[in-house]
């Protein structure tokens, strides 16, 4: 009889072989590899896979998704599971040294101390070399889960010392089915959101749950296809940045509130109970202004990056039209098919290709800490076609 996969894996879309592998390893971890490299393109869910694997390894039920252990890992409050992210250009050597110290400690509540490093490709060679020994010879009860877009994006010394798991780009039908099951949207909307998100699970779910995100997307395309003057480009840049910052601010404030609620629940405190002095510093750290501002900045960049993907999809559609491939590849922005067809008259094939390259330049500038609004203005003014 086939063994039922625990519910913690239910949110992993279109990755059946990987789910079967990792759930099997979690059930029998005696000879488990202690250093893993989870690879996959944007939207494939590599960070979610790493988190689900951490739950499956430390949950007494193998990843039920409902117990205190699973809830704390999901909320980021479990003492034995640490996730390293960065709102900077790269992961710093100080961050790595701090996490190495953590990795040497015995787990407090669960069988494993698990270190998840998102975007390990954003680590310099010098920083990677500091981490290398711990990856090669982890502490007895420590598991490293490194995430990157592909194995080629990390140094060979890391690749050779980890077990590599490669995720696929989820099929649109898989993403649509997931949306129907988890958000309650109908089949038509689910397929639309999956198409507009280009298979990116997180963005598709965002479109299903947050009408503001869809409105922002539609506004970008609507303004882009009619943009002919620099003044319009500047206004659109300001609109994108302002909307991104407002969305990020609201989202982070909501997250902080939920984290505070989870902290209270995990420590047996009610909504109005006073915080013991031994816990107050941890509780206050959740809403520390500097940390909240960093999180808002990082999320603002993520929302702007989503806007850049939307802009790129318009020029991708133009290239499809110029190549006569509508029936084979289809348009992403089907709702604006007439407007994009009209824009394709003003924008030739080479200009469409150049536009995508300009979008990549804007991404690199933002990643390099160029002010977001300035990068957007430079990009959009270069995309005005009379």
Automatic annotation (TrEMBL):
Its EC number is 2.7.7.7. InterPro entries: DNA_Rep/Repair_Clamp_Loader (IPR050238), P-loop_NTPase (IPR027417). Keywords: Nucleotidyltransferase, Transferase. GO terms for biological process: DNA-templated DNA replication. GO terms for molecular function: DNA-directed DNA polymerase activity. The keyword Methyltransferase does not apply. Pfam families: DNA_pol3_delta2. The keyword Transferase applies. This is DNA polymerase III subunit delta.
């Amino acid at each position: 009889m086939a063994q039922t996969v625990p519910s913690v894996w239910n949110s992993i879309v279109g990755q059946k072989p990987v789910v079967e592998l990792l759930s099997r390893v979690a059930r029998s971890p005696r000879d488990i590899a202690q250093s893993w490299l989870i690879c996959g393109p944007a939207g494939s869910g590599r960070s979610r896979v790493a988190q689900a694997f951490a739950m499956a390894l430390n949950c007494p039920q193998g990843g039920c998704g409902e117990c205190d252990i699973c809830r704390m890992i999901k909320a980021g409050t479990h003492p034995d599971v640490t996730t390293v992210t960065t709102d900077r250009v790269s992961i710093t050597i100080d961050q790595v040294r701090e996490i190495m110290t953590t990795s040497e400690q015995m787990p407090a509540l669960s069988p494993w101390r698990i270190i998840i490093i998102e975007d390990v490709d954003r680590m310099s060679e010098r920083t990677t070399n500091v981490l290398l020994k711990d990856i090669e010879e982890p502490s007895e009860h420590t598991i490293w889960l490194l995430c990157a877009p592909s194995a080629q994006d990390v140094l060979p010394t890391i690749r050779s010392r980890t077990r590599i798991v490669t995720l696929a780009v989820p099929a649109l039908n898989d993403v649509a089915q997931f949306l129907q099951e988890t958000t309650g949207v109908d089949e038509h909307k689910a397929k639309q959101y999956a198409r507009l998100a280009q298979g990116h699970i997180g963005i598709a779910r965002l479109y299903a749950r947050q009408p503001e995100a869809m409105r922002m997307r539609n506004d970008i395309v609507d303004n882009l296809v009619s943009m002919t003057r620099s003044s319009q480009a500047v206004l659109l840049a300001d609109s994108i940045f302002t909307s991104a910052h407002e969305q990020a601010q609201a989202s982070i404030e909501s997250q902080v509130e939920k984290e505070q609620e989870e902290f209270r629940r995990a420590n047996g405190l009610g909504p109005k109970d006073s915080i013991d002095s031994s816990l107050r510093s941890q509780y206050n750290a959740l809403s520390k202004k500097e940390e909240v501002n960093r999180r808002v900045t990082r999320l603002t960049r993520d929302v702007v990056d989503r806007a850049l993907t939307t802009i790129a999809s318009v020029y991708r559609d133009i290239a499809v039209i110029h190549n006569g491939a509508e029936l084979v590849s289809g348009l992403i922005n089907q709702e604006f098919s007439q407007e994009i067809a009209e824009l394709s008259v003003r924008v030739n094939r080479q200009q469409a290709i150049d536009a995508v390259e300009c979008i990549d330049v804007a991404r690199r500038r933002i990643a390099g800490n160029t002010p977001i609004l300035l990068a957007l203005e430079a990009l959009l003014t270069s995309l005005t076609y009379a």
